[in-house]
Amino acid sequence: MRSGRCAVAAALAVLVLAASFAHLYLLQPGRPQVPALQGQLQRHVIDHDGRRRSYWLYQPAGSAADAALLLALHGPLGNGHGMRELTARRLDLLADRHGLRVAYPDAGAGGWNGCGVAGPQRADDVGFLLAMVADVSARSGAAPARIHAFGFSDGGAMALRLALHAPGRLASLSMAAVRLSHISVPVGASGAAMLPPMLLINGSADRFEHAECAVGGGTGVAAAHAMAAWLSGGDAGALSPAPHESPPGAVINRQWRGRRGSLRLYLVTGGGHTLPQPYVRYPRVFGPTYAGFDGLAAIAGFIAETNAPSQATAPSLGASAAAQHGAGDYPMDD
Questions:
Q1: Mean pLDDT of the chain
Q2: Are 67 and 96 spatial neighbours (Cβ–Cβ below 8 Å)?
Q3: In this model, does residue 241 exceed pLDDT 50?
Q4: Residue 184 belongs to a domain
Q5: Which residues pair with 174 in a beta bridge?
Q6: Is 181 part of any domain?
Q7: Could you tell me if 199 and 264 are in contact, meaning their C-beta atoms sit under 8 angstroms apart?
Q8: Same domain assignment for residues 49 and 143
Q9: What is the pTM of this model?
């Protein structure tokens, strides 16, 4: 009898150890390389649509009252603080170097309402993000000169929805690991919605499923083609697919322009549901993190282009050659 109990206890111990190992190996991100920062991070709470909502705001020392504002939207099951850590605080470093503020909003309990589902159980996240911008303006005493948005996964879909439903408010839109099936277009007087310049960073091996909304797109090449076809008003005849023979570790650069806006794509061959960067490895359950291409530097350069086009400079976050020149073959960190 005692031997049977011992066997059960040993089996449970093995299961606990195996589960702990799987949690550490699959679900825990790598330790980020944290930069030295000069600004201040504060958490703020506002009331919107009968709910208490929160966000984190990073403010560089000595920033102007009307400094540009970057909205950084986290992915599913995350929060604003986690978004700051999974971007290795490099967005704060970007703020320090270029004098802009960074807001890290927290989604509600059910995640971002990127599909715009109505009902008492789903939050008005477009309204919340606009209320957050107004709160930042009230605290600084001036409205931001420009507003940029960057979203990861479902946060990217939410940022896209904000751009669609608040036309003219965003100066740029950057997305990573986004399944572009969230295109729900409000038709205006011209019959077409205009989007800000967009940057998309996707992995070709991203198999992570997202909630779907309006039109299918998938990830990787399919996602870019869905958006590019929409930008061109449905005419995808001129689109050329990214070469499937590209080896793992290649970064493919494509760009499209249409009557509704422009799209720049960085497709990481073999990349997973991650933001490629050399600073932090995403949990392995999301697939390989591509360390040879600095996606954060690409986003920084993209924001610099749209924030002050006449004074845009090269990315200054430790950018790799791939981020500055657009393509290359580099090792994968899995």
A1: 76
A2: no
A3: no
A4: no
A5: 150, 199
A6: no
A7: yes
A8: yes
A9: 0.79
Spatial distance between the Cα atoms of 307 and 170, rounded to a whole number of angstroms: 10
Give 289's strand partners. Answer: 333
Q: How many residues does the chain have?
A: 334
For position 313, what pLDDT does the model report? 41
The residue with tokens 């350069």 is: 301
Residue 3 lies in a domain: no
Answer yes or no: do 153 and 123 share one domain.
yes
Question: What integer is the mean pLDDT of 171-186?
Answer: 72
From the list 251, 259, 252, 221, the residue with the least C-alpha distance to 239 is 221
C-alpha to C-alpha distance for 42 and 235, rounded to whole angstroms: 46
Handedness of CA 282, 39, 295, 74 (dihedral sign): positive
196 with 324, same domain: the answer is: yes
- How many angstroms separate the CA atoms of 264 and 247, rounded? 21
For residue 185, give the nearest of 115, 237, 269, 258 by alpha carbon: 115
Residue span of the structural domain in which 111 resides? 36-170
Q: Which amino acid is at 236?
A: A
pLDDT digits (tens, 9 = 90+) for 1-30: 556 665 545 545 444 343 333 333 344 455
Strands of the sheet containing 172-176, edge to edge, are 40-48, 51-59, 101-105, 69-73, 147-152, 172-176, 198-203, 261-268, 250-258, 328-329
- Going by C-alpha positions, the residue among 205, 207, 160, 152 that lies closest to residue 181 is 160
Q: Is the dihedral of CA 29, 35, 36, 37 positive or negative?
A: negative
